[in-house]
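Below is the record:
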Amino acid sequence: MFSGVFGRYQLLALLALVGAPALTGANDGFASRLVSRHNDERARFDVPPLTWDPALARSARVWADHLATSGTFQHAPENDAAPEGENLWAGTPGRFTPEAMVDAWAREQRFFRVGHFPANSTTGRVADVGHYTQLMWRATHSVGCALAHGRRQDVLVCRYSKAGNYEGDVPF
């Protein structure tokens, strides 16, 4: 997800690994709550649970910090050499629980229909289900997230491996 612009963020990534606190372990309460909420949703449809991946959390930290600092809100550039799925969330600082953040993606289930991606939206817009399908993607086995605090909003970035939302595949 960093091809093209990764060079600009290498220093930021180094700082995130060395000095910035990150959600890097499943023993962290916030991290375990995020994983648990992901897995609760996946269990509803017999999709195997996710495990926490500290490397994905570090990767998410770099982008979350960038978004919070810059005040922008966009997906990171793709990294074709090592693709990661990505879900983004933003909200009023300090007002949302980890469960509520993941629930924002899970609510997209109301627009989901079974079939091949990207024809999974009852509205015809993949953006209405894309977070949900990544959350539920059967081939995805791990997740790592980071929450950054900006001046106007908190930003949550979750990274997934294996990436989901591949055209022509059935999500779950």
